[in-house]
Amino acid sequence: MDLLRDNELIYGRLLTVDEPHLIERYNKALKAFGLKPTKRDTIEIDRTGFSPQVAEDLGDTSYLDPNQINRRFIILTPQQIDLPVVHTAFSNTSQLLYEFLSANARVINALTIKDVLYGEIEDSVAKVEDIEDLLSINQVEFRVLSAEDVTGKAAELATLVDRLKQEPEAWRDTAMMEHMVELAKVTGDIRQNALVPDQVIFRHNAYWTSHFGGLYVFVDPDMTTVISDPSAPGFRRSRPWQVSYLSLHDAERVFDFLVSTGRVELPRASWIEQSNYLEHRAEMVVRMLIHQGDPKRDLANADRVWLQSWIHSHADLINREGTFPFLNAAKRELAQLGQMKMDDVRPDRRFLLVRAKPEHPDAWLTNRLISDFVPFDFVSRYIFNKQGFYADYEGFNAVWRKHVVDTLKDTYLKDKAGFRARLYGLKD
Q: According to the lineage, what is the superkingdom (predicted)?
């Protein structure tokens, strides 16, 4: 993973924490979780407060996610709202934390001046043993604590202020007045700064989770759809009137679900031609075939002219595998007719031609699911399915790893937002 880290393809865009008082606050949160404090002077953190350096020291990448449920968080600064989430068991952890930080921005700004916030994103289960446990989670609640108990002291000070206002002789209580002064030293002027989060409960909607080898949950008004390996405990076991279960290996049913619920854009010349979507898929499959045929070949100088020459000289291999000719045929049909008859397309190849409907709220999750059916497109895997990409990467040899990293640097990393907008129609 060193090559990925050096090129900011893993643990990229994290926030450097090197001020002694912030390291001290972080350690207070670690101690509250029953973890050993870090001895480092500098760490990096993501939106949740996860630090790869601390994870390395503890020998546990799940130190903030011990049971892959009820995710812990550590908030040192409001700046964390702009960071990615680099390690999580649920794809919607990032969005939930973003909503919490946004809804309580004023309070968090005030609290983090003096204190560190930490806690858990709690839901209705403590441990996931089958699919039904996941489906029972409808909402989550942020349980927020602080090392110096600023929120608790603010509440105590507010009570004493009320007493001072309501009891004419209360101002004569010297001990109480001195205690109020001490509390105010910690909390500041509570008349100006609210110090208790306003919103802590949030809806738990569609998501992917790493449980049971990877599982998707999509939520529609009348039906919840689970897509996973059929071996997952609880698969098709309960509530058939509320829950539809689809095998992640059943390309036809999964595709039909995405189409029927309006989550994908079917191939139309209007977006296919301007995005170069099929050209991208075609180049990805050619590079895969070259690597499969000659795993030690360095593709550093494989420009379009060289690739075209390789295609001509390996026509039999390309035709036998079939994906490249299929994409060319699809491109011709779209140019002539403006659309395609998907019923005539083999189910597993349909995913080559579609992308998530950009305006749908589940667009990122849908593109992630599509990437599971097009694993050779490592660019799409990296963008939408980093866990899947990193698992794939572990099986790559050194030559292919370098090629994958170089390709991502030369394409996606140069202009992430522009690349996503052009290829997938997504706007940040």
A: Bacteria
